[in-house]
Structure formats: structure tokens, C-alpha cells
Amino acid sequence: MKIGIIGIGFVGAPLAKHLVAAGHQVKVTNTRPPEELARMAQALGAAPATLQEVGQGVDVLVSSLNFNVLAALPQDLQDLFRSLPADVIVADTGNYIPFRDGRIEALEQGQVEGLWVAEQLGRPVTKFLNNLLAETIATGGTPPGTPGRLALALAGDDQRAKQVLTTLSNDIGFDAVDAGSLADSWRQQPGTPAYCTELTAPELVKALALANPDVMAQERERVFTEIFRLPEVERTHKAIVAIERSVLQNAQQHQSGR
Ligand SMILES: NC(=O)c1ccc[n+]([C@@H]2O[C@H](COP(=O)([O-])OP(=O)(O)OC[C@H]3O[C@@H](n4cnc5c(N)ncnc54)[C@H](OP(=O)(O)O)[C@@H]3O)[C@@H](O)[C@H]2O)c1
Questions:
Q1: Ligand 1 pocket member 32 (CB < 6 A)
Q2: Cα–ligand 1 centroid distance for 56 (angstroms)
Q3: Angle subtended at Cα 125 by Cα 251 and Cα 73, rounded to the nearest 5 degrees
Q4: Which residues have CB under 8 Å from 157's CB, separation 6+?
Q5: Number of structural domains found in the chain
Q6: Using one digit for the tens of pLDDT, what is the confidence trace for 184-231?
Q7: CB distance 255 to ligand 1 below 6 Å
Q8: Phi and psi dihedrals of 203, rounded to 5?
Q9: Residue 131 Cα: closest atom of ligand 1
Q10: What does DSSP say about strands 47-48 and 60-63: parallel, antiparallel, or unpaired?
Q11: pTM
């Protein structure tokens, strides 16, 4: 498959690497000068592309940008998304992290992040990879059928997009769970039991069902506070997953206490 990736940071880079290893043709872009982008792309086995080129001739375009970029979408990104053919699948890995992205009023008022992204980009998106930590994406994948294989949640309104992204998920080492429509994608946002808790597909289905919009923002803030309260040397991947899992545990306790 031909895949473009906008943003090769913590998420976009391992994604590109795994897709290349699986035999896909991948081109990547970011904001760096051409020589630096070329070096970064080469390290991933991908081709460097300008923003004008990254969406040309691709089957899938992945947006792996922080929400502060989406909130004030630069003109070149607006042009890219407006001129993208309708049949190109757009996948979005993003999450709203207020201390990083700044306050985004619509999201503070409860708009579903996936719907907000679709509005910013001016076209439908499918949520992909947003409920896995970057380290999980980089090192947590396993071949299909491996016992305990981790799963990611896909949410969107386009069944073909979800089928294609299920294939790509498999190729990079993860089962995919259909988490419903884009409007349902709040169930995999930060502060929910499905967010970065490293679950198998059956566990993820249950976690998605346990999501509670009333406590989501509060849980997101609690988790970030706990993570950043840890001294840096103790802020390991394992420790972060354990803190994220406290959201799942709280939801399970809440359910059993009902
Ligand atoms: N980190 C995680 O564990 C994780 C897990 C799941 C989902 N996510 C979500 O995925 C998204 C990306 O996260 P990340 O951690 O990969 O972020 P990151 O490391 O900060 O990477 C962001 C990427 O976006 C690029 N970028 C910024 N502005 C751009 C523009 N105008 N045009 C093209 N490229 C641009 C950056 O390029 P430059 O380097 O050139 O600035 C960089 O490659 C976020 O919304 C995040 O919340 C993160």
C-alpha cells in the first residue's frame, strides 16, 4: 500500500518504520529543512516528501500532529487536506493534552476529539493508534495470533477505512478493535479505560464499554499529574502504563460497586 505520514515524532516515526518493514511504500514529512528530513526519512526506510507531495498518490494519509497544530492549521496543511482526493483514507493519531496543546475551548466543552479533528481538517478521519503509547507502538507489536497480542481501537464512520486500517494494524503488530463511529471515539480518549492501558482485543472491547464521559477529563488530569509527579528516572514505560491502568481499575470498581 502507498502511505503518507505527516509528522514523524514519537508516534509517526515508529509507525513509518514498521510499515516499511511490512513492505509498504511510505513517504513522510515534517517541518524540517529538506536535508534534515531526508536524513530522518532515510533512517526510517521511508521517502522524504514535501507537504505538497505527501498526499499525492497515496491510499492512506496519517496525520500524527499535536492538537495545537490542528487548532491553528497552517495554510499549507489546509491546502493539502482540501485538495486530497476523497478516496484517500485519513487516519488521525492525535489526542488532546491541554498542558501541551493549550486550552481548546470546543474540547473543554466536551466536543469529541475525533469530530473536532475532522472539522479542523475539513474531512472525515478515522482514529488510529491514539490509544497506544509511542513506546507500545515502537516495541509492543507481535505477529498475528501471538497469545496476549495487544490491540488498538479504530473509530470512524467509514467501514472501508476501518478495514484498511485493520490490515495496517496487523502489519505493524496489533489486533484492531472496531470501536464504533467517530462520534463514539471519546471512548478511547485520554482519561478513559481504553487509553494506553495495553490490552488484548477482548479486554479492549470491555474497556471501551466502561468509559464514562463524566469522569474522563478529571481522570486525564489525575493521570498526567501522577505521571509527572514521578521523578524522571522512575517515569518508565512500565510505570506510565501502570498509572494509565488505574483509570481502568477505577472504572471496574465503579461498575462492580453499582
Ligand atoms: N507520544 C505518544 O505516546 C502518543 C501516543 C498516541 C498518540 N499520540 C498523539 O499523536 C500525536 C503526535 O504525537 P507525537 O508524540 O508523535 O508528537 P511529536 O513527537 O511532537 O511529533 C509531532 C510531529 O508533527 C510534526 N509537525 C508539527 N507541525 C507540523 C506541520 N505544520 N507540518 C508538518 N509536520 C508538522 C513535527 O515535525 P517537527 O519535528 O519538524 O516539528 C513532528 O514530526 C499527538 O496528538 C499525540 O497526542 C501520542
A1: yes
A2: 21
A3: 105
A4: 124, 181, 182
A5: 1
A6: 999 999 999 999 999 999 999 999 999 999 999 999 999 999 999 999
A7: no
A8: -65, -40
A9: 6
A10: unpaired
A11: 0.98
**CB-based contacts of 36: which residues, under 8 Å, 6+ apart?**
none
CATH of the domain at 153: 3.40.50.720
| Within a domain: 230 | no
Q: Is residue 137 part of a domain?
A: yes
11 ligand 1 Cβ < 6 A: yes
Q: Please tell me the distance from the alpha carbon of residue 174 to that of residue 15, in angstroms, as a whole number.
A: 12
**Closest Cα to residue 112, out of 189, 196, 31?**
189
pLDDT digits (tens, 9 = 90+) for 41-51: 999 999 999 99
Which of 10, 27, 120 to mutate to test ligand 1, by most ligand atoms within 8 A of the CB atom? 10
Nearest CA to ligand 1 atom 21: 9
Give residue 113's pLDDT.
98
Which set of grid coordinates corresponds to residue 178? 472496531
Mean pLDDT, rounded, for 57-75: 98
In a domain, 73, yes or no: yes
